Amino acid sequence: MPISIEDLRPDEGAKKSRRRVGRGHGSGRVKTAGRGTKGQNARSGGGVRQGFEGGQLPIQQRMPYKRGFTNRLKTPWEIVNLAQLEALEIEGDVTPKALVEAGVVRSIDYPVKILGNGEISRAVTVKAHAFSKSAREAIEKAGGTVETLERDDQWLTARPRSRRLPLSRELKQMRVGKVGGPSRREALAQLRERDEAKEA
């Protein structure tokens, strides 16, 4: 006997009927139909948005420290203004190391940027990782020179952990954990074999 589209049926228990409320005392959900007694949520079209506290000031407004977030990957620049350079008595070039010794910046591990707040009247050679346009013009106008250093700090290559690890990228490309993809143990074994083949 041929089978037609009308003969197809879902598996037992695959489809469930929607709960019908307010359909007789035997159902256990008559009268208020599971909505409780009165109130906004008992009405047709009632309900409140997520986070609503009945008109009370919500928690996200009561606690300002809950707003926003702190970017852990943000570069902590050391800012030095022209007025600070003018007050310094540094012989020779003004470098990040000299600024650390003078107590102007915290450490040579942080990149230094020179800003144009203030004036400088003497010719100095300033070496830093970045300069504002006004600071560069003021230093050169006073007869000094500027030299932009190449950054080599740890924040230059900071990335979220999943992107920072090359292993995570390779496992993602191998579709680890996806349908039809290998398990993590199998993928690591394949990568180990590949590395051994390269060394041999």
Characterization of the model:
- With 200 residues, the chain is an alpha/beta fold.
- Among the domains are: 78-156, Ribosomal Protein L15, Chain: K, domain 2, CATH 3.100.10; 161-199, no CATH class.
- The chain contains 7 helices and 5 strands.
- The chain has helices at 59-62, 82-87, 96-101, 133-141, 161-164, 166-173, 184-199, and strands spanning 78-81, 112-115, 125-128, 130-131, 145-148.
- It has a 3-stranded parallel sheet. A two-stranded parallel sheet has the order 3-5.
- It is elongated, with a radius of gyration of 34 Å.
- The two termini are 64 Å apart.
- The mean pLDDT is 87.
Task: Draw up the topology in text.
Elements: H1 59-62, E1 78-81, H2 82-87, H3 96-101, E2 112-115, E3 125-128, E4 130-131, H4 133-141, E5 145-148, H5 161-164, H6 166-173, H7 184-199
Parallel strand pairs: 1-2, 2-4, 3-5
Question: What descriptors fit this protein?
Answer:
alpha/beta, 200 residues, single chain, elongated, 3-stranded parallel beta sheet, 26% helix, 5 strands, Ribosomal Protein L15, Chain: K, domain 2
